[in-house]
Amino acid sequence: MKLYLCEKPSQGREIASHIGARTRGEGCITGNGVTVTWGIGHLVEQAKPEHYNPALKFWDIAHLPVLPDEWHMEVKDQTRDQYKIVAKLLKQATEVVIATDADREGEV
């Protein structure tokens, strides 16, 4: 399956209309051998400072700089369902087209 990964739902609907995907699914649109899905803003974010050290929950200049050995990402609570859909579709895909916004974050 060829998977188009878009930045947001409106962009996904627009691309789907041009490539023959017409069947709405949960968090995606499919058809004509392709699937279009999307993020909802950012699906993941950097872990909060207290993830690395509970003392960092409260700001104190004495704790600076915060330089973990390894930076972690966390799925945002409000986008968890769409994250799971995208992750599942990525595992099924044989080809992925990154069709995110045409800006510095994601060049179409």
Describe this structure in words.
By secondary structure, the protein is of the alpha/beta class. The chain has one domain: 3-Layer(aba) Sandwich (Rossmann fold). It has three helices and seven strands. The strands form two sheets. The chain has a five-stranded mixed β-sheet with strand order 2-3-4-1-7, with helices on both faces. Strand 3 and strand 4 form a beta hairpin. The longest helix is centred in the last third of the chain and has 13 residues.
Number of domains: 1
**Structural class of the helices, strands and pairings?**
alpha/beta
Low-confidence stretches: none
Based on the coordinates given, report the CATH architecture: 3-Layer(aba) Sandwich
Biggest sheet strand order reads 2-3-4-1-7
Mean pLDDT: 92
- The amount of beta strand, in percent, is 25-35%
CATH class identity: Alpha Beta
Sheet with most strands: 5 strands, mixed
Distance between the termini: 20 Å
Shape: elongated
CATH-defined topology: Rossmann fold
List the keywords.
alpha/beta; 26% helix; five-stranded mixed sheet; 108 residues; 3 helices; Rossmann fold; two-stranded antiparallel ribbon; elongated; single chain; 7 strands
